[in-house]
Amino acid sequence: MEHATTKPGSLRNTLVRLLLFGVLIILVRFAYVVTITGESCNVGDFCFFSLPESFNFVVAGAGPGASAVAATNAARGTDGGDLYTSKDWINAALFYSSVFQDLISEGQLSRDSKSLCVETPTGQDVYALRDIGVKDSIGIFKKASRPLVIKALPNRIPYGDNTFDFVFSGGGRLEKVSRPLDLASEIERTLKPEGFAVVHIGAKDTYSFNSFLELFNSCKLVKSHDIDGFDSSMPHIREIVLRKEFEIVGRGGVEKPKPNDNSANECWVPGHKRELVRSAEPLITEEPLKPWLTLKRNLKNIKYLPSMADISFKNRYVYVDVGARSYGSSIGSWFKKQYPKQNKTFEVYAIEADKAFHEEYSLKKGIRLLPYAAWVRNETLLFEINSDPGKDADDKVRGMGRIQPLGGRGGNNGGNVNEIQGFDFANWLKSTVSERDFVVMKMDVEGTEFDLIPRLFETGAICLIDEIFLECHYNRWQRCCPGQRSSKYEKTYGQCLELFTSLRRSGVLVHQWW
């Protein structure tokens, strides 16, 4: 009797152990999925949070026979809510469904199109495509949301060249990525010739629109129009439709006029840049009797380019300080603190020939020092340091430096003269930045601007600069000595005004600097 009663207990213990072992296998599998793969499972894998292939979401009015909203086996969001049945998700899917049906009616999309949606976090656009019959559709994002979205970086789309008939970027996401040119290049690479790319952006100004077009080398603009968004984060949308050509057609398919035969390096300043010049603050046309006050106060009137236009569609953001002097002279005191950067990270170049400031820059991270003098060619120059009696007392600690060709006369103002190396600034600029970059330049070179600016025009490098802050040096009235002009400079205020006027007339956004 005693022996017989022990058998059920042993069997029960065995079953409990098997059950615990099964639970352990499940937990180990779940831990692997969550901690190792770091994303949703494949459809055939075991996991708790993936969206199964049997997911059936019907958007009311989105397609033939659609009349209800339903979801079977809906996935759960990280907040515990039903992500794919949330009001925001449904509204987005409805919106994209309407957008895609319009594109089908206009011939830019078909139900046979192999389609890709880029930078789509949860795949509402992918679902909308599949729901209206474009079944061969997939999305990419840095984190997968299967089965609608796979994991991929914007600069490395995991598909071959000429794969897709249709590529879509919604939600203004192209302007939010750190390097929009990389994503635009990948869109062009994976898009088939005669395929269509449709992009939704939030920027409305002509500068940003043309900057967007310049991202694309092989696509031609088909149309651009404004539509209403579906939520408060992007209430107004500009929809841009591009078609990929068989050959490179130029940036955005916009052809530029050919330069004159007598100027092979002449550049073309487009209309959207000239529009910004017309919106800039007026120049001071009458010579100030107290320039140390008038020009300094005028800095408050400056209309910065980023305050007039969206700069999101640029490849890089570069600030060049020509005649930088100390870090606190303008980089630290003005550009870092006051220039409106629209949350962009700028590469900073400091060009300064005076050795007295070089050690300071070696301690500053993120700033590249060029310890030479900006000039019109590569050659040895004379560098003269002297004080200007018209400057503030703080500036007298270290006099301003002026450069002259080696055969020129140095020291005529009682300063110290040394030999330094000059470099061709215009050629350096052309080798460092491109038209796709956003370039800001401040120039304070003690009169050498009358050499450097013409050289920038001669080489075409002037068209690489989006905004210039220029201090023009002339025989201005001295603060120390009423009724006396500075003998340090030979140019007049009229010549400076002509320099500013010629820059603006050529479509260059330049500001009077002090």
Automatic annotation (TrEMBL):
Q: Which SUPFAM superfamilies match?
A: S-adenosyl-L-methionine-dependent methyltransferases
Residues in coiled coil: none
Organism's domain of life?
Eukaryota
Give any Pfam family that matches: DUF7870
Q: Where are the transmembrane segments?
A: 15-34
* MF terms (GO), sorted A to Z: S-adenosylmethionine-dependent methyltransferase activity
| Alphabetic keyword roster | Membrane, Transmembrane, Transmembrane helix
Q: Which residues form the DUF7870 domain?
A: 281-358, 419-514
Q: Give all residue intervals belonging to the Methyltransferase type domain.
A: 150-198
> Gene3D superfamilies of this UniProt entry?
Vaccinia Virus protein VP39
- Its name, as the record gives it, is Methyltransferase FkbM domain-containing protein
Q: From which organism does this entry originate?
A: Morella rubra
Q: What is the lineage of its organism?
A: Eukaryota, Viridiplantae, Streptophyta, Embryophyta, Tracheophyta
